[in-house]
Predict the structure.
Amino acid sequence: MLLKNIIKPFYKLMNRLDYASKFGVVMFLFAAPLFVVLLQLFIASNTQLKQARLHSEGMAAMLQSQALLTQLEKWRDITVLNFVTTDSEFSHRQQLALDEAQQTLSRVKRFLHDKSSPPILHYLDKLSSELDNPSIAPGMEGITIELVYDNVHRYVEEAYDWQRQLATSYGLLGIPDGRSFRAMNIFLYDAGDTYEAFGRARVFGTFFLHTGFIDSSGTYVIDKTYSKLEKEAESIGSKLQSIIAMDALSTQTSDIYLSPIYGVMELMDEQLIQVTAIQAPWRDYFESAGALRDTIREMEQGALYKIKSMLTLAKREREQDMLLLQVSTLVLITLTALLYTGFYYSVKKTITHLVDSAEAVAGGDLDRTMHTQTRDELSLLGRALDHMREQLKARQAHLHQISITDGLSGLYNRTYFDQVLRNETHRALRGKHPLALILIDIDHFKSINDNYGHQAGDACIQFVAEQLKKVAKRASDTAARYGGEEFAIILPESSIDDCFDIAEALRKVIQQSTVEYNEHTITLTVSCGVTSVVPDSTDQINDLIRTADEALYQAKRSGRNCTRHKPIEQVKDENSA
């Protein structure tokens, strides 16, 4: 009762509204919270899309910065060696390294020109100036190679700081993917120490091999560098292995990433540590160590490209999500507007359709469907009216079938036979194809009635009719009771020879069969007359029937139980004679 009292005011309100107003009230109650939800989705999706685009652009910038760091490290190594030796080859190599570093720096500046903040770009201008006139160790030509290396390495160290600022500006330290996040941390905060130890091993080893002598301080520097490489390999190896472990499908290990580090350690061990005299060619050592470092750089670049691909894919997914959200919102708004106007027209058109269909059926158009496209209560009314129409149509079809069917034989009656013959004659005239006719008569039918009774005669007629149905196999063939004990078969597109064979087959089947009636076994035979013509006018309908009848008469005169055929042309020749 309480629930009824609560609903009653709303029920009365809805009764006072038309369908359009009712739907408008419901739509407003639905649209208001939906609008709030959609707004929140738009804000969240747009934020995610901006972040994904920023990450994707940031990885492209990271690849550029990696190329710059690689060139700076090469420039650092050769600059240190050029400073501590008097070999002109190092001077030449330094100039080449400087040119390559400047070219790479120019590419990075062009790439970041409109994409980064002023402090990021300012550092690149500053670095370009410092590369042209580096401050290594003014007034300190006698300092140790380790100190020279530290002085030159500060340019690389500043570049690493700049790279971290670059990554922070693109939000790369906030990548949602766990593996990518850890990999970025290694690239930005751990890889620099590894590459520094690599550079020390390359520069110090080359220097001592070039001089051909290593003192106690040199031995200390080499051992210290070797230990640093070993420490870095252990540190970065554990971190790499934790990243690999996060990928359940990965079959890789950290060893493939650490093998270049172990390679340079082995190089140092063979050519600098475990030797009594330093004799190895410094150029081979210098190139081998550089190649091993390049191997790590290539692996690192491959990993960065993989992360970039993942972030690019994430960006595309966010763009697709945003597009889907926009399209969905547009579709939803459009559908809501269409539903508001479509509801009224749905009811109106359904009622109009039912009224028009009912009037058409009342006028005799029983093929006019009354089904509606709705699934509401009006569809029930439509189905009920359509059921009434189908019943009327079925009764009309039944009456029509009765009107064209012979009640005793079940074949078509004479009226329908005449109609089909006219239609097939017109069709044969248009298509220039033959039209054949077979007339069949039961032999001595009067004797059957006299000897066995009229019901036995009816059984014989029914038996012959069943055989005719088997003969008239095609959909275009028409078997009919022509009158009394006489039957006819219309065979479109059939020659006189084909019809003769069909008639003979029919006659033989009937001759070889018997009709059982009560306790009597009745043997039947039939006589058949066959003719065929390619009509040249509709007047040949009568000629066709008359010729077939004459052929049947010849069969009767020939002793019955036989088939005779007679072309219409032969009839014309006989009449002319």
In short: The longest strand covers residues 435-442.
